[in-house]
Write a structure and sequence with these properties.
- The chain contains 13 helices and no strands.
- The protein is mainly alpha-helical.
- α4 crosses α7 and α12 runs antiparallel to α13.
- The chain is globular, with a radius of gyration of 24 Å.
């Protein structure tokens, strides 16, 4: 198909707008990165824009000297992998049976699952539930309650519906049971959508904050986002004391430490994204209406 001149102009305009939006999203990250590498004196004098001034690694050295921060990084990486795999397993086990028209109570099950998307018990009932289940200060409290996303399950179920039933029926005629059909037919075909859901789950767990804040007090199980929150609060307290003349030090020098902590907590998940990006568009497009 040959595009008209006006269509090409519209495409270029849209591409330009998308590029502008991307640049606007990158500016805050560049500013934080510049702050994390700039000297304390440059930050105090507010000479930092989008390029490091008098580059130094002092802020990163300060953050890495805290063994609790390194421990939180390692623990969050392990937790993210475990949660992603477990969540994918639960999503598959929930979506796959719902494609069978012979499943008894299928309509009721679908209704109950979708109901949880719009209504929840709330913070206090959830806290009481976790307490009654003896999950407080237990690492499982970061895995079990959010192991299944109904939205992600619906995406996967829609993809399973798009797989021709003739493939499943042929396999069943050859003696394959439902588990064999799932492993040998559905899962190999669903690599793009599974990669997309893995990205959703991994980013959600890496950025998880509220559940750890509510249910955990032991420092051994604190994820990186909660640790980052604690570091920024502690540094802010030192900064306020310095400005009021209670302590020594250089005012506003803590901004570099905050920026370094934010960059260290952000870079790992940013590195993971490009490996799954090629599946992203194809995965989220699953379930679209086809002509």
């Amino acid at each position: 198909m040959v595009l008209s001149k006006s269509s090409k102009i519209v495409d270029w305009v849209i591409a330009g707008i998308c590029l502008l939006v991307i640049l606007l999203c990158l500016l805050p990250i560049l500013h934080i990165f510049a702050q994390s590498l700039s000297s304390p004196l440059s930050i105090v004098n507010r000479r930092v824009s989008f390029a490091p001034v008098e580059p130094t690694l002092e802020s990163y050295q300060y953050v890495f000297r805290d063994p609790a921060f390194s421990r939180s990084m390692v623990w969050t990486a392990i937790l993210t992998v475990i949660c992603t795999l477990f969540s994918l397993l639960m999503t598959i086990l929930c979506a796959y049976p719902l494609i069978y028209s012979t499943l008894k109570g299928k309509g009721i099950i679908n209704t109950l699952i979708v109901f949880t998307m719009y209504f929840s018990a709330g913070t206090i009932p959830n806290y009481i539930l976790m307490k009654d289940l003896n999950l407080l200060n237990n690492p499982l409290v970061l895995i079990i309650p959010n192991c299944l996303s109904v939205f992600n399950m619906i995406i996967l179920r829609s993809f399973f519906y798009s797989v021709p039933e003739s493939l499943r029926e042929s396999a069943e005629l050859d003696g394959a049971n439902p588990f064999t059909v799932l492993v040998n037919i559905y899962l190999p075909l669903s690599a793009p959508v599974l990669a997309t859901l893995a990205l959703f789950y991994a980013v959600g767990r890496w950025n998880g904050f509220s559940d750890a804040l509510l249910y955990l007090t032991k420092p051994d199980f604190v994820p990186i986002q909660l640790k980052l929150y604690q570091i920024i609060n502690n540094i802010s307290s030192i900064e306020i004391a310095t400005q009021e003349g209670i302590g020594g030090g250089v005012p506003l020098a803590s901004e570099g430490m905050k920026a370094a902590a934010v960059m260290i907590a952000t870079i790992p998940i940013v590195i993971v994204y490009p490996w799954l990006q090629r599946y992203f568009i194809k995965g989220v497009a699953i379930g679209a209406v086809k002509g």
